[in-house]
């Protein structure tokens, strides 16, 4: 099982990240992906890194998919190649364009992707950008009806990857790390460099 280090980005940094995303005409997810790729590149000494990113969505080609219950998530490889040079904004635009190309294949299983690539493990770190919708007003209505009381929410998950960065809107970050591979000080230092 992994150990966890939570962090909350201060309001100034959150606004700077949002401003960068808007000015570069990319999503906040793309900015976070680039930052994670840059951190991995610096940590490993490589200019070309690949990590996994969790995606979600319901494939429109499946009839009645909108009425199906269950998780429609997958993990896709994300490549950040710093050898291409250019400005940060250009790198962000390239990364977002690459991610847009993957959208058509986001439902292809990771094992199938690995087989197609002709390689074993494609990555050993994971980035999860959690941007799912929570119907706050619906929850409040249910509470007012007296039939349901929500006292809080929490989730627990685990992966086999040595490092997993989970990002939740509002500036909440959690770095999960395998304690057999990283000490708490090493993991905290990585998160601080992000």
TrEMBL record:
Cellular component terms per the entry's GO annotation: cytosol
Organism superkingdom: Bacteria
Residues annotated as domain Condensation: 3-193
UniProt GO MF annotations: catalytic activity; phosphopantetheine binding
SUPFAM superfamilies referenced in this protein's UniProt entry, alphabetically: CoA-dependent acyltransferases
InterPro entries from the UniProt entry: CAT-like_dom_sf, Condensation_dom
GO terms for biological process, alphabetical: amino acid activation for nonribosomal peptide biosynthetic process; lipid biosynthetic process; secondary metabolite biosynthetic process
Protein name per Swiss-Prot or TrEMBL: Non-ribosomal peptide synthetase
Organism: Streptomyces sp. SID7499
């Amino acid at each position: 099982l992994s150990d966890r280090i939570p962090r909350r980005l201060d309001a100034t940094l959150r606004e700077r990240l949002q401003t960068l995303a808007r000015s570069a005409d990319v999503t906040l997810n793309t900015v976070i992906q680039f930052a994670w790729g840059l951190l991995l590149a610096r940590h490993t000494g490589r200019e070309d890194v690949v990590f996994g990113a969790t995606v979600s969505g319901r494939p429109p080609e499946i009839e009645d998919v909108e009425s199906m219950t269950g998780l429609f998530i997958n993990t896709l490889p994300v490549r950040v190649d710093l050898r291409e040079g250019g400005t940060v904004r250009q790198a962000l635009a390239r990364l977002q364009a690459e991610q847009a190309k993957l959208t058509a294949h986001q439902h292809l299983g990771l094992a199938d992707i690995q087989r197609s690539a002709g390689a074993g493990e494609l990555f050993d770190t994971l980035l999860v950008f959690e941007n799912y919708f929570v119907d706050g007003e619906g929850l409040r209505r249910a509470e007012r009806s007296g039939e349901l009381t929500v006292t809080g929410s929490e989730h627990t998950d685990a992966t086999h990857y040595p490092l997993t960065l989970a990002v939740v809107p509002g500036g909440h970050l959690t770095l999960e790390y395998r304690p057999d591979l990283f000490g708490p000080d090493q993991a905290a230092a990585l998160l601080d460099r992000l």
